[in-house]
Amino acid sequence: MQKNIQTEKQSRSTETPLSPNTSRKAGFFRCFSRCKGWLYLLPAMLFLGFFMVYPLIDVFVYSFEEGYNSASQTYFGTGTYNYSYVLHDPYFLQALKNTFLLVIITVPLSTGIALLISIGLNSIKPLRNFLQTVYFLPYVTNTLAVGLVFMILFKKTAYSDGLVNLLIQWFGGKSVDFISGPYWAKMFVLCLYTIWVVMPFKILILTSALASVNQDYYKAARVDGTSKFRTFMRITLPMISPMIFYLVITGFIGAFKAYSDAVALFGTDLNAAGMNTIVGYVYDMLYGDSGGYPSYASAAAILLFAIVLTITCINLLISRKNVHY
Amino acid sequence: MKVVLRNLTKKFPSRDKKNKADVIAVNNFDFEIPDGKLIGLLGPSGCGKSTTLNLISGLEKPTAGQVFFGEDDVTGLPPEHRGIGLVFQNYALYPHLTVRQNILFPLENLKGKDKLSKAEMLEKAMEAAKLVQIDELMERKPGELSGGQQQRVAIARALVKRPRVLLLDEPLSNLDARLRLQTREEIKRIQKETGITTIFVTHDQEEAMSISDMIVVMKDGMVQQIGRPQEVYDSPANLFVAKFLGTPPVNVFQGQIKGGTLYLDIDPVLELSGASDGPVYAGVRPEGFLLRKDGALGCELSGVEVMGRDISVVASNKASMMPAIRAIIGAENLAEISADAVQVRFDLKPNKVFLFRPETEERILFEAVK
Predict the structure, then answer these.
(1) B3-239 has which CATH code?
(2) Given an 8 Å threshold on Cβ–Cβ distance, is A226 in contact with B96?
(3) At what angle do helices A183-211 and A128-136 cross, to 10 degrees?
(4) How far is CA A305 from CA A56, A98, A285, B318, in A?
(5) What percent of chain B has pLDDT over 70?
(6) Contacts of residue B85 in chain A, CB cutoff 8 Å?
(7) Which residue of B has its CA nearest to A237?
(8) Residue from the list A225, A234, A239 with its beta carbon closest to the beta carbon of B80
(9) How far is Cα A48 from Cα B145, in angstroms, rounded to an integer?
């Protein structure tokens, strides 16, 4: 034992000591390896900083600068006048109402129907691949092209009543102009269109989520004599709850940002059609007549941000109890 | 509840374009399991033991044959109506429910006249939990439990409905070595306390032999031998069973019977009667070797492994069909092997020698003459 310790001491003393150059290099490498993580993040952080954080703060500041003139880059003063203008503007209130209706109708419906379709697809063997492709097709279509087709289906013109109206008349009802007619008809078409467009992605996500549930849980439930309904409610749903939660959150956020869908159906003058959305209102305020009203646009944008933030926080709070990872 | 399997067969259609033959997973399994016994289905991977368990549980339908629980033919019944408890290899505990909710789950499915009140359900769940000694962890989720604890929760969930038959699919393979010893004693204890007919599947022969009342050795879907563990060990029906049971494994030699004597290579090792002349496979259990200076069988010594209580002598012989021969002898004989010995000689214990026909690998019975 003693012999070993002695030889160790000897070998250490005969090692070459660190020269001044090597110790400086060692220090640099140590610092580099610690900062490596930050360096990898730097490009993305710069990008996000320039194109997201800075504009966000900028818009927030704009929203408090009253009467901002983009041509002369001057403003009258600071205050909350922009917000009170926007909140009393009937166009904004109409847009707010439209957007909320859209969100409340399309998000639960599209997620629910997507879930039912996914379960159906999961339980059939023949034709499954074919049907999956069919249900996924709307995802690869173009928004405006689809809007055009919907217009043809639903619009009542001087020449024809549209295919859907023909169907209604066949059942003995009165034809309705879905594109330029009553408000509920226009809302109906917009919701139908939105659900049709967002469903394929949800079906895709939910189908893969259902397939990823370990089959042993179903076998165990079967041996325990669990009914199909109970298996679904107490095993399937909790197992796929993270995916459902993801779809609900992104569904809400996406629905609040709806604009191109409305334009595809009703044309660019949404205010005239009474089908404007919040994003549409912001766009109109920015690029409207005489250089636009960036202050009002900023205020509306910040209001939208606040609404989406609140809804997302509520979703997160609900998810803590109901989502199982 | 006795379980009777009559001519049980399961064939899977072949998906191989070249080989159109069906895969026969279970081939004509015929066995009557007595009530209240712990049965081990033992065999290598792919021998059909898990498929047999699935057929008994009802998760798979047999191609032919019948399954009886007692006097009832349950072949056509789905698993939920057979009254079984099944413990899966990976436990399949519902990860989002607590231990208590997991154990309550089967009880909540009872409907009609079997429906229990909330208090009765909780009481039964507590009973099951106490039986497996998990009653302290009722509020935890499966992810917060160790492997052994998860195992016990799975067993509690299977037992809470007081099933007629308890089925366990490789219950110990996911546990570490120390826990395996502990848990297999638990399974034996639980089975004795509840008296439920229990069938478990394993590939570990030590596990099966240590706790089963009877073991069924399977290979390629066919039953090789059924019997009490010691019987199957002492009297294997064929070479496969002899090789499968026992650690270290049985030593197999190519031998000859000539004129009433068994020859291994050139050494006459055993006088016997009742077996005809001809080539044979001879299996000798490691404990069947007796170290003798003038022993009948001579081997080249490769090494000696000290295991404390015994020593393992590693040797080689021309007649051996395995790369090395392992003999277990008592540690007191260590001195008899000198440090530079090249050759060792053994005598064989006749009751530890098994003879097999080379063509069929079936056992040849003989009487030793001494």
Answers:
(1) 3.40.50.300
(2) no
(3) 140
(4) 10, 17, 16, 86
(5) 99
(6) 223
(7) B96
(8) A225
(9) 42
Q: Where are the domains of chain B?
A: 3-239, 251-368
Q: Whole-angstrom Cα distance, residue B146 to residue A94? A: 58
Sorted by sequence, the CB contacts under 8 Å of residue A143 that are 6+ apart come out as A197, A260, A261, A264
pLDDT of A128: 86
Q: List pLDDT tens digits, range A225-265.
A: 888 899 999 999 999 999 999 999 999 999 999 888 888 88
The residues near B204 (Cβ < 8 Å, ≥ 6 apart) are B172, B173
- Indicate the range of B87-96, B233-242, B287-296 predicted with least confidence: B287-296
Residue A14 identity? T
b/e map of B74-103 (b: 16 or more CB within 10 Å)? Answer: bbeeebbebbbbbbbbebbbbebbbbbbbb
- Find out whether B16 and B66 touch, Cβ atoms under 8 Å: no
Amino acid (one-letter) located at A54? Y
* Mean pLDDT on A141-149: 84
Given a contact cutoff of 8 angstroms between Cβ atoms, the answer to whether B302 and B315 are in contact is: yes
Supply φ then ψ for residue B27, to 5 degrees: -120, 100
Q: At B168, phi and psi to the nearest 5?
A: -125, 125
With a CB cutoff of 8 Å and minimum separation 6, the contacts of A8 are: none
Query: According to the model, what pLDDT value does residue A124 have?
Result: 85
* pLDDT for the residue B183: 87
Average pLDDT, chain A: 84
For residue B153, the chain A residues in CB contact (below 8 A) are: none
Distance, CA of A173 to CA of A180 (rounded, Å): 18
pLDDT confidence of A292, banded at 50, 70, 90? low
Q: Which two tokens stand for residue B106?
A: 């089967």
Q: What are the start-end ranges of the H helices in chain A?
A: 2-14, 20-48, 54-63, 81-88, 90-123, 128-136, 143-154, 163-170, 183-211, 215-223, 228-231, 237-256, 260-266, 270-273, 278-287, 294-322
Helices and strands counted in chain B (H then E): 8, 22
Are B96 and A216 within 8 A, CB to CB? no
Q: Quick check: A45 pLDDT over 60?
A: yes
Query: How far is it, in rounded angstroms, from Cα B205 to Cα B228?
Result: 13
Q: Six-digit token pair at B292?
A: 């003798």
- Quote the pLDDT of residue A125: 81
Say whether B92 and A217 touch across the interface (CB within 8 A): yes
Q: Which of A61-75, A307-321, B232-246, B298-312 has the lowest mean pLDDT?
A: A61-75
Work out the burial of residue A79: count CB atoms within 10 Å of its CB; fewer than 13 is exposed, 13-18 middle, 19 or more buried: exposed
Would you place residue A16 in the very low, low, confident or very high pLDDT band (cuts 50, 70, 90)?
low
A206/chain B closest Cα distance in angstroms:
19
The distance of Cα B338 from the centroid of its chain, to the nearest Å, equals 39
Spatial distance between the Cα atoms of B123 and B130, rounded to a whole number of angstroms: 11
Structure confidence at residue A18 (pLDDT): 56
Contact yes or no for A235 and B109 at CB 8 A: no
Write down all domains in chain A, each with its CATH number in brackets.
92-322 (1.10.3720.10)
Structure tokens, A223: 């041996």
Helix locations, chain B, DSSP H? 49-57, 99-108, 118-131, 147-159, 177-194, 205-211, 229-234, 239-244
Rounded to two decimals, what is the model's pTM? 0.78
Shortest distance between the Cα of A117 and any Cα of chain B, in A, equals 25
With CB atoms and an 8 Å threshold, state whether B57 touches A222.
no
> In the block, which residue shows the tokens 């330029």?
A180
DSSP for A159-196, please give it: S---HHHHHHHHTT-----TTTS-HHHHHHHHHHHHHH
| pLDDT value at residue A113 | 94
Q: Which of A222, A238, A324 sits opposite B80 (nearest CB)?
A: A222
